[in-house]
Amino acid sequence: MKFRTDIYDVSRNGNSVRFCLILALMERKRFLQSLLALSAMGTLSNFKNYTDALPKQSKRLPVLFTSHGSPMDIPLSKEERPFWNALYHLGIDLQKNYDVKAVLVVSAHWCSKGTFVNISPEQKQIYDYYGFPANYYDPKYQAKGAPTIAQEVSKLIPSIHETTEWGLDHGAWPMLMHLFPKADVPVFQMSISYYESPQYHYDLGKQLKSLREKGVLIIGSGSLIHNLQILGPKFRSGDMSPFGWEAEYDAWIKTQIDERNVTNIINYETSHKLGKLAAPTPDHFVPVLYSLGLMDPKDDIRYFYEGKPSIPAFSERSFILS
Question: Per-residue pLDDT tens for 112-157?
Fold first, then answer.
C-alpha cells in the first residue's frame, strides 16, 4: 500500500482502487482528535436481461438518500441520538411493508478510479476513522453480502469491476446498524468513481432502476453539506455553532429536491453561490445523484430526518422516495 497526501492507492490484478480521504492523513487525525477533545458502463437493454433473472415483486422498493452521521455519534444509542432513532423506525416500516432481499449502498467513503462492486459473500467491517477511544471500535455489524446480485450488476455494465477488497465502511454500517439492527438483510456496496462527472453518477443511478422491482433497496449515503476542511480552527476553539450559511444552502437544496429540479442538483457546483462551499469535494454529495437517478415520476418524496446537524458545515437531511 502506498501513501499519498490525499488518497490511498491499492493495486491488484491491474485494477487501481482509490480510497478517499478528505484531509491529508495527519491533518485528518488531528481534526478527529480535536473532535474527541470537544466531546470527551453497459446498455439498459442488457441490464434488463440480467435483472429479469431475479423474481419481480408486486411492490417496488423505495430508494433512500441518507446521512450516515458523524463518527462522534457511533457509540450513542438511538435513545440518545434522534437521527439514529429515525433510521430505526424507518427500518421497522420498510421490513413491515416490503420484502427487502438485499441492500445496495453507494457510500461516500468508498471512492475509486472506475466503479467497483463488492461481490464478497462476507462483508468485513471497516473502521475507517482514526484516533478514537477503544469503545468507538466496539460496535459489530456482521451482515452477509449479496454476491449473486452484485455479480449481475457487474455483468450488465462491463465497466463496473468486481472486487472483494472492500466491505462495509462507516458510510454504511453505522447507518445500517440502526436501520436493520439484526443484520438480517444482505448488503453490498458500489463505489464512487471519483473523477467522473456528476452527470455520470446520475445516469448510472438511472440504469439501476429495475432493481427496485426485484427486492433491492438502494441507498445513497452521504451528506448534502459536508466541508471538513474549514472546521479545524472552529473545533479547536470549542465553537460548535454553525457558520451561518448552512441554513441558506439547506433551504435551497430542499427546494430543488421538492421541485425535482435535477439539472440544478447535477450542476450543484455552479447553480448556487454556496455550492462549492457546501460540497468542496464530490464524495459526500454525489450519492444523492444516484438516489435521484433512481427516482420515478410517480414517487413521493418524504424527509424522514430534517434535524439540526450536530456539527457545523454538515447536513443530516435525509429522504425516502416511494
Answer: 999 999 999 999 999 999 999 999 999 999 999 999 999 988 887 8
Kindly list the domain boundaries of the chain, sorted by start residue. Answer: 42-226+243-321
Contacts 24+ apart (CB under 8 A), 96-100: 97/59, 98/59, 98/61, 98/62, 98/215, 98/217, 99/57, 99/59, 99/215, 100/61, 100/185, 100/215, 100/217
Question: Quick one: CATH architecture of 42-226+243-321?
Answer: 3-Layer(aba) Sandwich (3.40)
CA distance 244 to 256: 20
> Which residue's C-alpha cell is 485528518?
28
Q: Which residues contact 264 (CB under 8 A, 6 or more apart)?
A: 256, 271, 272
Give me the chain's average pLDDT, please.
Answer: 87
In terms of DSSP bridges, do strands 216-222 and 63-67 run parallel, antiparallel, or are they unpaired?
Answer: parallel
Residues 6 or more apart whose Cβ sits within 8 Å of residue 232: 27, 30, 31, 34
Question: Measured between alpha carbons, how far is 146 from 4 in angstroms, rounded to an integer?
Answer: 32
- The pTM of this model reads 0.86
Average of pLDDT values for 40-52? 44
The SS3 of residue 29 is helix
Determine contact, residues 279/268, Cβ cutoff 8 Å. yes
